């Protein structure tokens, strides 16, 4: 990270380049049941990110040597489409997508009641169709909605956000330029009710005071994002109940 001398990330009015204040989120929209053949699915738009998630399972783990006799195994596969970024990336998994798949799998495993489904696996397929900074956090937040949409028992929803340092200021939900040229990036995800941290990573340097401010901003933001998750799921069940009542009245 690091800002080129000609790249200003804070304008003359003290606002960020996209007009946001320090603690403002980019626009977030989540919808469910996008894919008919998946057990659960979600589509998220977060800033310029567009992410599709499909969930299948629990189903018998295969090959059999991957089975855990005590619990289900959550397998997340994160993939960025070749056309998701300005410079076309090589199709297929790379080191970054493998690492993100692993941390998302671990974070979701903390939320799912895996002990209820021994010898099974739950597959979570994440496709980043358009990337605009913060894709791992957006993917994890959307995946949690897709799991709930599939009716998989969960202890809590996973919700995430990022903060970072830009021109010596701590700001929430980094944009693409802030992520590329800022001084630090701190993505974090928690269980929405008890705030147990299930993912935390950092790129760059923060002082103890800056780290404390960044995490405080993230924790407050996750409450707002969790409300968007709940609204997306409540809309799903509202539509289902309406459909059932209409069919019952025929």
Automatic annotation (TrEMBL):
- Protein name stated in the entry: Exosome complex component Rrp41
Query: Per its UniProt record, what Pfam families does this chain match?
Result: RNase_PH, RNase_PH_C
Task: Relate the protein's function as given in its record.
Answer: Catalytic component of the exosome, which is a complex involved in RNA degradation. Has 3'->5' exoribonuclease activity. Can also synthesize heteropolymeric RNA-tails. Catalytic component of the exosome, which is a complex involved in RNA degradation. Has 3'->5' exoribonuclease activity. Can also synthesize heteromeric RNA-tails.
| Exoribonuclease phosphorolytic domain mapped to chain residues | 24-153, 156-216
Instruction: Spell out the SUPFAM superfamilies in the cross-references.
Output: Ribonuclease PH domain 2-like, Ribosomal protein S5 domain 2-like
Q: What is its main location?
A: cytoplasm
* Assigned protein family: Belongs to the RNase PH family. Rrp41 subfamily.
What is an annotated GO biological process for this record, any one? nuclear-transcribed mRNA catabolic process
Q: Where in the cell is it found?
A: Cytoplasm
Task: Return the EC number.
Answer: 3.1.13.-
- What is annotated about its quaternary structure and interactions? Component of the archaeal exosome complex. Forms a hexameric ring-like arrangement composed of 3 Rrp41-Rrp42 heterodimers. The hexameric ring associates with a trimer of Rrp4 and/or Csl4 subunits.
The Gene Ontology CC terms held by the record are:
cytoplasmic exosome (RNase complex)
Q: Which gene encodes it?
A: rrp41
